[in-house]
Every structure is written in C-alpha cells, then in structure tokens.
Amino acid sequence: MNLAGHSIALWEHIDSQYDKLLDGRIKAETMEKTQIQHEFDGKRGSFFFEEDQMRFAEMVYLMAEPEKMIIEHTEVKESLRGQGIGQKLLEHLVDYVRKEEIKVKPICKFVKAQFKKREDLQDVLS
C-alpha cells in the first residue's frame, strides 16, 4: 500500500469513529465493558475512557505536591453525556487517591459540584 492508500485508510478510520460518536452507538453498556484507564507522567495525569484509540471521556489532574492533587478539568463527549461517565471517572480517581493517601482540590466545576452533593467523597478533600 502506498502513502496515499495509508492516508485514505486513516481517514476512513477517523470517519468511522466520528460517525460512531455522532450517532451515539457508544453507550453506557460499552462503558461498563471498558475499563477506566489511568495515566500519570510524574506531574500531570488523567483518568480516561477510550475506544479504538479515541478518547471519549477524561478527568485531568495536576500534582501540586506529592500528596496534593488538583483536579483541573473533566470532559465527556456529547454522545456519552448524561450516562454517568463523569461519575465513573470520579469514582476511579477517588479510589486511587484513597489508596495513595492523596488529598484533592477540585477546580473543575463538575467535580466541585459532585463533592458538594456527595458526603461519601469528603474525606479526600484537602
């Protein structure tokens, strides 16, 4: 396959992923089958959900100190909104910080609202 063939195949893949996103075929059932993943580079990290190398939901954080995490931003693609994906990301993050004995400071509006609503999360606030 020549370079043009690779480019066409790549665009077809992107198109199919975009179509999947737009028509809402990625549902909560898919989310339940797929694990929330975690990446951390020593300073910044995220909890995320992706399928076919396309990220559909993400909660991004920064380590301000070894035991203090700032939750900066949460984003969920429109096709998954309202299905509890943000909650799943937050639950994985909270499990992680409890295990690692890290306190969090949310600046993300979504996460701030969740901490206000849910008393069961208060123990991890800085």
Describe the fold and architecture.
With 126 residues, the protein is α+β, with helices and mostly antiparallel strands. The protein has one domain: Aminopeptidase (3-Layer(aba) Sandwich). 40% of the residues lie in helices and 29% in strands. The protein is built from 4 helices and 5 strands, in the order H-H-E-E-E-E-H-E-H. It has helices spanning 3-22, 28-33, 85-100, 109-117; strands at 37-40, 44-51, 54-65, 68-76, 103-106. The longest helix is centred in the N-terminal third of the chain and has 20 residues, at 3-22. The chain is globular. Mean pLDDT is 83; it is low at 1-5.
Question: Any chance you could write out the topology, listing elements then pairs?
Answer:
Layout lengths: L2 H20 L5 H6 L3 E4 L3 E8 L2 E12 L2 E9 L8 H16 L2 E4 L2 H9 L9
Parallel strand pairs: 4-5
Antiparallel strand pairs: 1-2, 2-3, 3-4
Structure summary:
By secondary structure, the protein is α+β, with helices and mostly antiparallel strands. The chain has four helices and five strands. The chain has one domain: Gcn5-related N-acetyltransferase (GNAT) (Aminopeptidase, 3-Layer(aba) Sandwich), CATH 3.40.630.
